[in-house]
From TrEMBL, chain A:
Organism: Pseudohoeflea suaedae
GO biological processes: amino acid transport; glycine betaine transport; response to osmotic stress
Location, primary (coarse class): membrane
Coiled-coil stretches noted in the UniProt entry, renumbered to this chain: none
NCBIfam families the record matches: proV
GO cellular component: plasma membrane
Record keyword Nucleotide-binding present: yes
Gene3D superfamilies: CBS-domain, P-loop containing nucleotide triphosphate hydrolases
This protein's record includes keyword Transport: yes
Entry protein name: Quaternary amine transport ATP-binding protein
From TrEMBL, chain B:
Name this protein carries in UniProt: Proline/glycine betaine ABC transporter permease
GO cellular component assignments: ATP-binding cassette (ABC) transporter complex
Keywords: Cell membrane, Membrane, Transmembrane, Transmembrane helix, Transport
Compartment list: Cell membrane
Lineage of the organism: Bacteria, Pseudomonadati, Pseudomonadota, Alphaproteobacteria, Hyphomicrobiales
UniProt source species: Pseudohoeflea suaedae
Entry annotated with the keyword Cell membrane: yes
ABC transmembrane type-1 domain sequence ranges: 100-279
Alphabetized SUPFAM superfamilies for the sequence: MetI-like (SSF161098)
GO BP terms in the entry: choline transport; glycine betaine transport
A GO molecular-function descriptor: amine transmembrane transporter activity
Membrane topology: Multi-pass membrane protein
Chief place of localization: membrane
Length: 355, 295
């Protein structure tokens, strides 16, 4: 497609507030002034959905928003295509503020700039797989033949060839979500919103779908906003991760940053169970060098597990990290590698697991 | 102690005055607008007569085959189409072919009219809670009002004959289609609607692509009920000069013709079975895509 080589459109959410209730506008200033969620709820019977959200989502990357149920993550993603109107704040997509769009502009924005995949698939039950997949293009007014060509390409790409004339009810959950994905991709929008897209699937099928998405992303390079409650999924998919709790962003950054420096108790509880060897890259633990080092060469961006495997196989205690062009950029010590893999992380650095 | 044994009613003269005012008001209304109504209804009248002529004047064998054919097209069931043919043959053999045909014509026209008027009202109700709040009590009244009462205003407005009868039947039979259209649209899965919005559907596209198709099975249940109510009312409407099986029943009441009454009654039952089975089978066929579930 034409926009394959362009960097995707970035999304930047600024000072976003969402209060649910009969007169939300009246309480924004009080919440900005420091009123707590509990006080707002008990004294004024309004619910604070999102509080002062600021996230910059880079174009062409996967931004994961993670949080448990009730943290406001699904509310947040619905602000990007304004399925939910914010109480205050801005949602800048590319150059435009979604919040300021009128109804017609919003409709055009939804048709051409975004596509969405839903937790419960939300396929049209009375339409076949093909008819579901063309839905976005149908709304855009693309000629039927072109719609079907485009749809067929994505149906094949997500592995549903031969099921074009089936109804959604005849497919398994995993296959239905492939239809959801094909429908969103056929829209050819630069932004893909995925609201707990894989949460309703079995663990194995979920892994499978994650691989499908990562493979696709290599070629489509869209700006993907992925909502999940599963940290493993977040770490697997996210180029950047924001963690939401009670409607506030508690931490955001790359996955290494989240795993290595959890901002508080809440996040450290989350990351304690993570297999750090598969998340942390060699770049985080290497010591920079300028000259040639000795030992096996390990590519930048590799995870510790790979490095440790390579070093133990060759029974060496040192390795060299090289960049894309094969130039050495740092040296690795097996002790540092293993230390980084096993050190339990806690923002307070209290080692309760060793005791 | 008079007021204990006798209800302290409004005195006779004011009661009479009230009735008189309303009656005179309505009479003035009918004098002023009766003709306008009749003109406005002339296409309906034309359609009504066309349908009746079509069913009664065409060769009976063609009509029978056509009705059985429609039954088969709607239900895709030889059994249902066969039963329809047998019922019609019996009705004809017992000498009620013409009456039956005009009753069927009346029911079809009244039902079509109820659908054309009722579905838009149901859609409006589904889109706004306020409209729903206004229409719900009206529909409640309509559904509990004794059917004979509907005849009074239409006779005053339009006189005696097929068209006022048709209007009375339509008004009587319209509540189910309105209610079930409203219900069907309101029951459409919120997730699917959200998806339609997320892809940029306009309000019309939402209605056309998502709400109406998904509400259709419920709406068909409404159509089925509307047909049944129309059929019941067609008999009552015989009192204001609607021809058909109802007239036979009316005559048998007046003259105590037991057998005539039974025959006509059974013919009505026969038609009811035809309409019911065919429309239900069609409604079921619309839901086919929901039935085949991944195992």
């Amino acid at each position: 497609m034409a926009d394959e080589n362009k960097p995707g459109i970035g999304i930047s959410i600024r000072n976003l507030y969402k209060i649910f209730g009969s007169d939300p506008a009246a309480y924004v200033d009080m919440v900005k002034g420091g009123m707590s969620k509990t006080e707002l709820n008990e004294k004024h019977s309004h619910v604070l959905g999102l509080k002062d959200i600021n996230i910059d989502m880079p174009g062409g990357a996967i931004q994961v928003v993670m949080g448990l149920s009730g943290s406001g993550k699904s509310t947040l993603i619905r602000h990007i295509n304004r399925l939910i109107d914010p109480t205050a704040g801005e949602v800048i997509v590319g150059e435009d503020d979604v919040v300021k769009m009128n109804e017609k502009e919003l409709r055009e924005f939804r048709r051409h700039k975004t596509a969405m995949v839903f937790q419960k698939f939300a396929l049209l039950p009375h339409r076949t797989v093909m008819e579901n997949t063309v839905y976005g293009l149908e709304l855009q007014g693309v000629p039927r033949k072109k719609q079907e060509e485009e749809a067929q390409r994505w149906i094949t790409r997500v592995g549903l060839e031969g099921f074009e004339d089936n109804y959604p009810n005849q497919l398994s959950g995993g296959m239905q979500q492939r239809v959801g994905l094909a429908r969103a991709l056929t829209n050819d929008a630069p932004i893909l919103l995925m609201d707990e897209a894989f949460s309703a699937l079995d663990p194995l099928i979920r892994m499978d779908m994650q691989s499908v998405l990562l493979d696709l992303q290599k070629e489509i390079r869209k700006t993907i906003v992925f909502i999940t409650h599963d940290l493993d999924e977040a770490l697997r998919l996210g180029d950047r991760i924001a963690i939401l709790r009670d409607g506030e962003v508690v931490q955001q950054g790359t996955k290494q940053e989240i795993v290595l420096k959890p901002a508080d108790e809440y996040i450290s509880n989350f990351v304690r169970e993570v297999n750090r060897g598969r998340v942390i890259t060699v770049d985080m633990v290497m010591t920079p060098v300028s000259g040639e080092g000795s030992g096996p060469r390990i590519k930048t961006g590799s995870v510790l597990e790979t490095a440790a495997k390579k070093m133990t196989e060759q029974s060496v205690s040192h390795a060299v990290v090289i960049d894309e062009d094969g130039k050495p950029i740092g040296s690795l010590n097996i002790q540092d590698v293993i230390a980084a893999m096993v050190t339990p992380v806690d923002h307070t650095m209290v080692d309760d697991e060793a005791a | 102690m008079d007021w204990l044994t006798e209800f302290p009613a409004m005195d006779r003269s004011s009661l009479t005055a009230i009735k008189k005012t309303i009656d005179l008001g309505f009479r003035d209304f009918t004098r002023a607008y009766g003709d306008a109504f009749e003109t406005a209804l002339s296409p309906v009248k034309w359609f009504m007569f066309w349908m009746e002529d079509l069913l009664t004047d065409s060769p009976w064998i063609l009509v029978l085959l056509a009705i059985a054919g429609i039954a088969y097209a709607a239900s895709r069931s030889i059994k249902i189409a066969g039963s329809v043919a047998i019922i019609l043959l019996l009705v004809g053999y017992f000498g009620m072919w013409e009456d039956t045909m005009s009753t069927i014509a009346m029911t079809i026209v009244a039902t079509l009219l109820a659908i054309v008027v009722g579905i838009p009202i149901g859609i409006l109700m589904a889109r706004s809670d306020r409209v729903q709040a206004i229409f719900n009590p009206i529909l409640d009244v309509m559904q509990t009002m004794p059917s004979f009462v509907y005849l009074v205003p239409v006779i005053m407005l339009l006189g005696i004959g097929r068209v006022p009868g048709l209007i009375a039947v339509m008004v009587y039979a319209i509540p189910p289609i309105i209610r079930l259209t409203n219900l069907g649209i309101r029951l459409v899965d919120k997730d699917v609607l959200e998806a339609a919005d997320a892809f940029g559907s306009s309000s019309w596209q939402r209605l056309k692509n998502v709400q109406m198709p998904l509400a259709l099975p419920t709406i068909m249940a409404g159509v089925n009920q509307t047909i049944m109510m129309a059929l019941a009312m067609v008999v009552v409407a015989a009192m204001i000069g609607v021809p058909g099986l109802g007239l036979g029943i009316l005559r048998s009441i007046n003259n105590q013709y037991f057998t005539l009454g039974m025959f006509n009654g059974l013919a009505i039952v026969g038609i009811a079975i035809i309409f019911d089975r065919v429309s239900q089978a069609y409604g079921k066929r619309l839901q086919k895509h929901l039935e085949v579930v991944h195992g």
